[in-house]
Design goal:
The structure is a single chain. The protein has 10 helices and 2 strands, in the order αααββααααααα. It is mainly alpha-helical. It has 2 domains: about 70 residues, Winged helix-like DNA-binding domain superfamily/Winged helix DNA-binding domain (Arc Repressor Mutant, subunit A), CATH 1.10.10; about 140 residues, Four Helix Bundle (Hemerythrin (Met), subunit A), CATH 1.20.120. Strands 1-2 form a two-stranded antiparallel ribbon.
Length: about 250
């Protein structure tokens, strides 16, 4: 998607902050200087600053000016923040936090899904699984279907707060899936684990579903650790996911 002037300005400043070009606690240049540097109006800069403040990257005040906040204030559920971190470099701490979050949220959600999923929910999860299988066997966008699979499980728990969280989790989950996919035979080896989750949900077996998703999450953690240890270049989330070859 092509962004407008406002979106490009937010991206430029957001990437600079996440990459550390503006240190935590430091003031960013005043609006006229930023506008001149970026080739945009003061109004565009002002609106971009408001957007970044809403994402937790900046704070503004009449006497202190506009200052950069430390990373613990950033909204890590905002897809833009995740993408900017991807561009700056995915850190071990970031990936560890992601895996911890998955281990907290997904098992509970999948347990509820096994109790509450409707026929429509199950059909959507099955369709996503079938897309993953086709991507492995015939080539294609495995990551997109993997994401749909996990989003479907979160929706199937029919908890409004978790469902709302699933929208924010998308960029975070894609990070994990992109990395796992870079491992040789990673997607193919993960298919039986995904199937075990679906089967337990269909069978209305909450404990079994919870155990199956934990196996899947821990396998993804092992994949991430292996990729980090190999020092292989990590994927960037502002580009399309790598397609599998048949």
């Amino acid at each position: 998607m092509i962004k407008n002037v406002h979106g490009n300005t937010v991206d430029h400043l957001g990437e600079a902050i996440v990459a550390g070009r503006y240190a935590s606690g430091a003031s960013i240049p005043p609006e006229p200087l930023l506008g001149e540097e970026l080739g945009v109006s003061r109004t565009v800069v002002r609106e971009a600053v408001k957007s970044l403040a809403a994402k937790g990257l900046l704070t503004t005040g009449p006497k202190v000016g506009t200052r950069v906040l430390s990373s613990e204030h950033w909204n890590w559920f905002d897809p833009d923040v995740v993408i900017w971190q991807s561009k700056a470099g995915l850190t071990r701490d970031f990936l560890r936090d992601l895996q911890d979050l998955r281990r907290v949220v997904e098992p509970a959600a999948v347990r509820m899904a096994a109790e509450r999923a409707t026929e429509k929910d199950i059909a959507e999860i099955e369709e996503a699984y079938e897309g993953m299988r086709r991507a492995v066997e015939e080539g294609g966008d495995y990551v997109a279907y993997d994401l749909r699979f996990h989003q479907g499980l979160l929706r199937a728990c029919h908890n409004r707060m978790i469902v709302q969280m699933s929208k924010a989790l998308s960029a975070l989950l894609r990070t994990s899936f992109e990395i796992s996919t870079t491992r040789k035979d990673g997607p193919r080896n993960s298919l039986p684990m995904h199937r075990a989750v679906v089967d337990a949900v269909v069978a209305r077996q909450p404990a079994k579903a919870e155990k199956a998703i934990l196996v899947l999450i821990d396998s993804a953690r092992d994949d991430i650790e292996a990729v980090l240890a190999s020092r292989r270049r990590l994927p960037k989330l502002d580009t399309p996911a790598r397609l599998l070859r048949a």
